[in-house]
Amino acid sequence: VISLTGLRREFDLHPDALYVNAASEGPLPRRAREALLAVLDRKVHPFRLGTEEYFQIPLKTRELCARVAGCRPGEIALTGSTGGGVNLAASALPLDPGDEVLLLSGEFPALVNPFLLARQRGIVVKEVRAAGKWPAPEDFERAASARTRVLAVSHVSSSTGFRHDLPSLGRLCRERSWWFVVDAAQSAGAHPLRFEEDGIHILAAPGHKWLLGPTGTGFAAVRADILEQLPPPAVGWMGCLHNAAQFVSSYPPFDVSRFPGGRRFEIGTTPYLALAAWNASLELLLETGIEVIEGHVGSLLDRLRTRLQGSRYSILSPEDPEHRSGILSLTGRFPAKLLLLLNQRKIFPGLRGGALRFSPHLYNSLEEMDRIAAALRELESAKIEADRKGENL
Ligand SMILES: Cc1ncc(COP(=O)(O)O)c(C=O)c1O
C-alpha cells in the first residue's frame, strides 16, 4: 500500500465523497489543474501563446506516453481517444478482402466498431466466445483460420475486469504472424505496459481514465518497424515535414511527406490546454511508479474482497491474481437500486453490464474499502429484513 499522506494532497479530494470509478473518469490532480490554468491564461491573451503550446507541450506528452506504454517516443501518435488508435489499426493495417479479425464477444465498442466498419472493405470480423469461464489463448486458436490476420483485445475487460496475459497472446500472434492490437483503456496507468516485449503492433489508450487526464486526450503506440508501412487514414499539416516554423516566410510546396515517427498520424493543431494538464497527471503517475500503483490498487481490492466474503454479493471478476486488475465487479439482486443507495451514502462506483464496478486508484485507502464493504453489508441486511417483511427496500 502506498504511503498516502503526500499523495492524497495531490488531489482535491471531496471531504465526504468516496470515489471509486477511475474506470470511467479519473479525477484531475491539483498540479494538472494548475498547469491547465496557466495555459488557459495564455489562451485568454493569445499573443502570449507560442511554439511552447504548439510543439513542446505535445512533444512532452509523447515522451510521457512512451514511458507509460513501454515504447519509444517516436512510436507515439496523439489521438484524442482510444477509438482514434483502434481506427488507425482497422484502416491502416494491410488487410485484404476476406482477411479475418478475431474479437471476443462482449468487448467495448471502441475496440469493436472500427473493425465492423472495415467490413465495408471486405474484412471479416469473427466473434470469439470463451469455452471456459474466462478467455484463453486457445479460444483464439480454435476460432482462427488460414485467413486470420488480426487479434484485437482489451488488455483489461471494462465489465468483468479480466486481465489478459499479453505475453502469451503476443507469442501466439508472433507464431501465427497475426497483427496484435491492444485496447489499454482499462490498464494504461493501472498496470505497467510492455509494448515492445509483448509483441504488440498497435496499442490504444485514452487519457481521461486511469491516466488522470482531461477528456479528448489519448494516444496510440505503433511499432517502429511498421510505422512507415501504414498509410495514414487522414492527413493534415501537423504530421507533415513541411511544418509551421517554415510558414512564417513562405508556404510549403504541395507535398505530404510526413514525419518518420508516430506523429505522422496526427492531423491538426493539438488540444494543448488538455495536453498541458495531462502532462502534469502523467508525471505524477510516473513519479509514483505504475508498478507501485498496481500493487496499491491490488491491495485495496483484496481488502474489499475479504470484507465481502460470506456475503450474498457475487464477485464477477477473476479470482486468479494473474488475471485480476483495477476493476472489481459484483452483483447484488438490484444493481441499479444498489448504486443509488450507495450514492446516497456518498460512495461512487460505476455500473456496467448490470454489475457494480469498483475501480479505486492511487488516492484511495484501505479504510475506504472498509467503508464500502460496511455499506454493502448494511444494505444487504436491510434488504434481507425488507424481504422478510414483504416490503420494498
Ligand atoms: C475497454 C475500453 N475501451 C475504450 C474505452 C473508451 O474509448 P474512447 O477513449 O474511444 O472514448 C473504454 C471506456 O469505457 C473502455 O472501457
Can you describe what's shown?
The chain is an alpha/beta fold and 393 residues long. The model has no long low-confidence stretch (mean pLDDT 95). The longest helix has 24 residues, at 366-389. It has a 7-stranded mixed beta sheet with strand order 2-8-7-6-5-3-4, with helices on both faces. It has a 4-stranded antiparallel beta sheet with strand order 9-10-13-12, covered by helices on one side. A two-stranded parallel ribbon has the order 1-11. It has helices at residues 4-9, 30-44, 51-69, 82-92, 109-117, 137-143, 166-176, 224-227, 272-288, 290-308, 335-344, 366-389; strands spanning 18-19, 76-78, 100-104, 124-128, 148-154, 179-183, 202-206, 218-222, 314-315, 328-331, 347-348, 350-352, 355-358. Helix 3 (51-69) runs parallel beside helix 9, helix 4 packs parallel to helix 5 and helix 10 runs parallel beside helix 12 (366-389). The protein contains 12 helices and 13 strands. Pyridoxal-5'-phosphate (PLP) is lined by residues 81-83, 108, 110-111, 154, 158, 183, 185-186, 206, 218. Pyridoxal-5'-phosphate (PLP) binds next to helix 4 and helix 5.
Q: Brief overview, please?
A:
The chain is 39% helix and 13% strand. By secondary structure, it is of the alpha/beta class. It has a 7-stranded mixed β-sheet with strand order 2-8-7-6-5-3-4, with helices on both faces.
